[in-house]
């Protein structure tokens, strides 16, 4: 863990979930995580559901080369696969919080970190590529936004 300390969190008022070696793009996961960080879990789930349906775009602020312009947000995209994986993790962390007895309606995403992980080879012997793999860590806690 690079620079993240959980000593400031009270373990009774927070819940965590980890996604290990998810087959999604690192760049897209950074943009999605930056967009939904510090939002309420219910709000973040609605945003990701609208992205999956193609009704709302995620604004890309860092990795926005050759991206089309979207109304009112500038460069943006619809990262469907990334949104599906992060939505599943949000549902997992919500279930973990409910198991710990936390109020599910007041959960706020306090930490959402995508990390690069080991990449495996695929597609052949001579001309081959590496798989896209990302670890994502989510920490939610009770409180207002």
Number of domains: 1
The topology string of helices and strands comes to EHHEEEHEEEE
**CATH topology category name:** Ribosomal Protein L22, Chain A
CATH architecture: Alpha-Beta Complex
CATH superfamily placement: Ribosomal protein L22/L17
CATH class call: Alpha Beta
Overall residue-averaged pLDDT value: 91
Task: Specify the structural class.
Answer: alpha+beta
State the shape.
Answer: globular
The number of helical elements comes to: 3
User: Termini, distance in Å?
Assistant: 25 Å
Strand content: 25-35%
Low-confidence stretches: none
Record the strand order, biggest sheet. Answer: 1-8-5
How would you characterize the largest beta sheet? 3 strands, antiparallel
Evaluate the radius of gyration: 16 Å
Instruction: Give the helix level as a range of percent.
Output: 25-40%
Description:
The chain is built from three helices and eight strands. The chain has 145 residues and is α+β, with helices and mostly antiparallel strands. It has a single domain, classed as Ribosomal protein L22/L17 (Ribosomal Protein L22, Chain A). It has a three-stranded antiparallel β-sheet with strand order 1-8-5. It has a three-stranded antiparallel β-sheet with strand order 2-4-3. α2 (41-53) runs antiparallel to α3 (80-99). The longest helix has 20 residues, at 80-99. It starts with 13 loop residues before the first strand and ends with a strand.
What would you say about this model in short?
The chain contains 3 helices and 8 strands; from the N terminus they run E-H-H-E-E-E-H-E-E-E-E.
């Amino acid at each position: 863990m690079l620079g993240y300390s959980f000593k400031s969190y009270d373990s009774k008022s927070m819940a965590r979930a980890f996604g290990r070696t998810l087959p999604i793009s690192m760049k897209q996961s950074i943009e999605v995580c930056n967009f939904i960080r510090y939002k309420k879990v219910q709000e973040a789930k609605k945003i990701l559901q609208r992205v999956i349906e193609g009704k709302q775009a995620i604004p890309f602020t860092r990795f926005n080369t050759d991206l089309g312009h979207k109304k009112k947000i500038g460069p943006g995209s619809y990262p469907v696969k990334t949104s599906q994986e992060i939505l599943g993790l949000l549902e997992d962390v919500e279930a973990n919080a409910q198991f710990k007895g936390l109020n599910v309606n007041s959960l706020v995403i306090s930490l959402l970190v995508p990390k690069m992980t080991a990449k495996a080879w695929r597609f052949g012997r001579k001309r081959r590529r590496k798989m896209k793999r990302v670890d994502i860590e989510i920490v939610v806690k009770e409180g207002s936004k």
